[in-house]
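Notebook entry, structure prediction.
Reason for the run: the old model in the group folder had no record of what sequence produced it. Starting over properly, with the input documented here first.
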Amino acid sequence: MLPGALAILGIVATGCSAAQAPEGAAGPGLAHVHGLGVDPADGMLLAASHYGVYRLPESGEPELVGARQDTMGFTVVGPHHFLGSGHPDPGDTEQGLVRSTDGGRTFTAIGATPRLVLIDWPATELLVAVDAGGSVYRSVDGGTSWVQQGAVRGQPGALATHGESEVYIAAGDGIYASRDSGRTFTLRQSMT
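New structure, fully documented this time:
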């Protein structure tokens, strides 16, 4: 199965830095969700939030998987294999791209990466991402190295790819489309 079939749209919410739990605190539970994904290892729905990654069983309460971590740009890329990125707020988790290969119990940084907030994995080893300022990045080696492509105006709120060259970003006053791997964008749909 191609990783693109598992890519999940990340969401950046306004006011993200408000109401943070103190470091080491459990947080308020499941709140302020940035991304959703289904782990193909067990079919479990996961929610990545300001307060950690949670397993969401069919019945019962959400279960915190690992330590409290603000995980933006959450994407499931394989069985127990997730990617995430840091929060764009300088006072919070500016961790760059992180990877978990143990179902979200731990995350480790992947080299020196831009401070990405939304990530999509459209094909094997190909990642497309955007930072809080709207700059688009592309990696052809699974996130080890990045090349800046183009940019969109406004704070990005959603990212999707289709194939290896189409990139869509909701930011500011519209939804922007690129057919050249994110180098140039045109307004596809205005938003009010």
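Summary: Residues 56 and 90 are 30 Å apart (CA to CA).
The old model has been moved to the deprecated folder.
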